[in-house]
Design goal:
2 helices, 160 residues, 2 domains, 7-stranded mixed beta sheet, alpha+beta, Nucleoside Triphosphate Pyrophosphohydrolase, Ubiquitin Ligase Nedd4, Chain: W
Length: 160
């Protein structure tokens, strides 16, 4: 998404270097447009030595597998978002037990908060954004949509 007009005075924005980064700047009022990152929350849920994964039914990574998770809504507690997303995508209710870590990649606007979680109810069924949901051995993971998931699982495994 590219901003074209200033949100304060409606002048056409220009690209200028600000603190070493090229950003949209208003030549009239001097307002700098900062694009905030998106925060996502994911859960690692284990059952009998396997971890819960979903096969994505949305554009990013369509048909590939990932940890259940998604974007945190404005004003939502991150742990609540992780539990909500797990339920929406898998039908399982989970209790978030602890932070595995925060994960980000250079040039990627998404910061991922990864949590260990425990299954407490519900029934395994893919939600509207998932084609499938299931449990997989760490040594037999399907093709992953995000390289970050492998890093999250490695950190989770080493902390156990």
């Amino acid at each position: 998404m590219t901003d074209r007009f200033c949100g304060s005075c409606a002048a056409v924005l220009e690209r200028r270097e600000v603190f070493g980064v090229e950003r949209p700047v208003c030549p009239q009022c001097g307002r700098v447009v900062y694009h905030d990152p998106k925060v996502a929350a994911v859960c690692v849920v284990a059952r009998g030595g396997e971890v819960l994964m979903i096969r994505r039914g949305t554009d990013t990574g369509y048909g590939l597998w990932s940890l259940p998770g998604g974007f945190v809504d404005r004003g939502e507690v991150v742990e609540s978002a992780a539990a909500r997303e797990a339920w929406e995508e898998t039908g399982l209710e989970v209790a978030v037990e602890g932070l595995i870590g925060l994960f980000s990649l250079s040039g990627d606007p998404v910061i991922v908060a990864a949590f260990a979680a425990r299954e407490i109810g519900g029934g395994l069924a893919p939600g509207p954004e998932a084609l499938e949901a299931g449990f997989f051995s760490l040594d037999g993971l399907p093709e992953l949509a995000f390289s970050r998931d492998r890093e999250i699982l490695a950190r989770w495994r080493s902390a156990r």
